[in-house]
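Example 4.3 (complexes with small molecules)
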Amino acid sequence: MPFSETLTKKLNAIVSKSETKRSALIPVLREIQNEYGYLSAQSMEEAATMLEISPSSVQNVATFYTMFFTEPAGKHIVWVCRTLSCALRGAEHVEHYMCDKLGIKTGETTPDGKITLMEAECLASCGTAPVMLVDNTLEENLTKARVDQVIQELRED
Ligand code: FES
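Answer. The structure with FE2/S2 (inorganic) cluster bound is encoded below.
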């Protein structure tokens, strides 16, 4: 299925602001993922055609960056920071607690398709460790109680 007219307009706008078509690749992939939730093989091929680059170049970028999903992901993505400051302040416990509560391992999606749990590198909020990024919202100074609240909010959405 080709990109919708709306998405095509957004992608063309991104390309028109970029120095070269190739340099628009990451923002284009981000926009496609915003639309569909992940990057299907077909959408990567369409992006390649649009940007006049090889499908393997698109696939290489899509599989290199952890922010891109090449399989369907959950409605909500939770990124638990595992870098030093967060690690020193209990990120491992946060992650294990999330896994227990959600019944999944890191990198997996809950059976209802609501939540995908991922590990992240430093989220640039070391002073408020441990932190996690829930979609586009940073959750800081995490406690079990706050993790419980976040999970409940995501499940109810
Ligand atoms: S180490 Fe977690 S935000 Fe920097």
